[in-house]
Amino acid sequence: MGTLWFWIVAVMLVAYVVLDGFDIGAGIVYLFVARTEEERQQAMRSIGPFWDGNEVWLLAAGGTLFFAFPLLYASAFSGFYLPLMIVLWLLILRALSIELRGHSAEPLWRTFFDALFTFSSSLLAIFYGAALANVVRGVPIGPDDYFFLPLWTNWKPGPHPGILDWYTVTGGILALVALAVHGALYLALKTEVDLEQRARNFARNATPVLLVLTLAGLPLTVLARPHSLDSYIAHPILFVIPCAVLASLAVVFLATRGRSPLTAFLGSSAYLSTMMVGAVVGLFPVLLPTVGTAGRDITISLALAGPHTLHVGLVWWTLGILLAIMYFVIIHWLFRGKVPRHADGYGH
Amino acid sequence: MDALSLHRIHFAFTVTYHYLFPQLTMGLALLIVVLKSLALKTRDAKYDVAARFWARIFAVNFLLGVVTGIPMEFQFGTNWSEFSRRTGGVIGMPLAMEGIFSFFLESAFLGLFLFGEKRLSRWMHWTSAFLVFLGSWISGFFIIVTDAWMQHPVAYRILPGGVFEVGSFWGLMLNPWAWLQYAHNMCGSVVTASFVMASVGALYLLLRRDEVYGRMFIKLGVVAGVLSCILQIFPTGDLHGKYMAKHQPAAVAGMEGLFNSERGAPLVLMGQPDIEAQKIDNPIVVNKVLSFLIYGTTAAEVEGLDQIPRDQWPTALPLLYYSYHIMAGLGTYFVLLMAVAAFLLWRGKLFTARWILWPILLSFPLPYIANTAGWMTAEIGRQPWLVYGLIRTSQGYSTHIDASTSLFSLLGFLGLYAVLSILWIVLVYNFIQDGPQAASQDAPVNGSKTA
Question: Of the ranges A331-340, B95-104, B320-329, which one carries the lowest mean pLDDT score?
Fold first, then answer.
């Protein structure tokens, strides 16, 4: 039961990264690939009906984590207090920039909200990457199963880590580039003419950078947390996951050279998914590893909620997620195809 | 200030601010469905124009509800980690269900409702409005289930380590407290939306502009308003109060300022609670009415605070008393105002009776105050418990988060929310100034063409 819920939460987080990833990524590259007012409106309209629903995956995954693994929720959310508050503020600023841009008649204010959109999207990507790197690296859990991390200490992973050190910052930059590519490919898929062209060029040029960062990620992870390969060494078949990561990057690389934007976008979705799955497999069955000796790892069995809660949860979760998938299929089908250059969306 | 107080203020402030938005969202979603239904039925374009106008306000309001709502879910973990660790197996369930059953529905169909009018049939557009309404009301339900479990914990099992889990799914969902509170709360939400709509209508009529829409808004606002205001007091408020008297006598005694148990207890209309002397100063009372309201007979004995151990008294007694009295007082005023307006509407005199249009225009902030005071009554009345009778508030907060860390993020939210308030006011003011027709002038000619 614990393993099942572990994967349920993991899959929901993957869904969040792939889905909200494309609109966050579109935000990262927005200022650079969408130059004219018309193009910026086009970019905004391409994510308009979706970004809010994409963000719901974060809430739904958070809620599921809360009820399936209460101890992990309590420990991790309070331990990561400072970065979480910053993430909340960034989410607020980002939502405001999207909404208010559409309500501003003055070009001056639109430019300001454009900059705010790219700024908050970029920082969010960096924080998400750093957050995942923090979980992979481990945190100094105390005897009471709680911890509290400062934003930074000596920038080294060691026994007194901060949220930011060389390893987690690398993770943040990797996430920034990965989501930028993902977002650029989404824009290339959904927009036309110059914007489409520039987005595709951006993705094409950034993919080699992403490859270098991804290749560097593995040895750096082993350096930051020597045990991170234990699962892989015990079950060598799992090495198929890093191979899939590289294969999906190859797909992105080739598809951006050919003219198949959908393949490229699916490739980067596969890249993000396999990267996440690779990290999660390395953790299993630990949810949050500890560094130092004061406390213990927070494992699935330690954090798991009561049996009846989980049994009941499985019933409504299955039903609810099927409904949610249905909604996503409906709206993506209704808003399928490219966003035209000339149209006024009302409300946003 | 100590860490516990700061964590409490942190949550209290952010949740109070957050609820300013959903209370309008939920009620307005219903009124928009009414407008869309009228459009379908009468085929009169003015109802579609009106729905578009309110959809603009709805969209901004919804967005602010979303962005101020995300911090609420996070805060259970960040500031109330012990509470989360012990009760996540219960309250995590309705919170997760809210995300999965409500937010997905709401966000998907709000996108469709706002962006899809030109590519959907009239029926499909009505359906998307209806599903947004449904999603927002489901969301309210799961939040109330969560709160109701803290107010009146049912259907749980205690596991080793003081951890709770759900003992019965239907027991949790059918908690009587939840249904009473839900009914009362949703009426309150419709009251807010009705007052806001009637207020905008009154503004247009007083300004003698957009009078077609002014009359439409005030008519719908007053009809929905008079119904919801009456339902708010009877039966929802009445039943909720009686149930509360049975299960939280300390809270009811504090709300009513009843220090000593009494047969034929009086209803205190006004006065200040004096904790030292344990009496109400300068009281204006109506004899025996409290006993009647709770038990249906003037002779019944109502339990006062003297029956309750001092360490289980609500911790902020005067605040509880004032909140409750403000809520009840405003509720009474709402019924009076809306009844007079409804009478004038029936006699066909409302649209020109400027003496009543003015108070309708100016009363829109009052339901916000009443709803806030109502929530304060519920949550302050629950003190000193976090989960009534099971976990004290002092046992639930994140002890390893320093007081000043909590203060830091509280200040951050105060600043950011001040900005949100300004933006909300500017945007909504502009929408109202632009008038109902403006929202339709920039409606999409054709959304985006299909592949």
Answer: A331-340
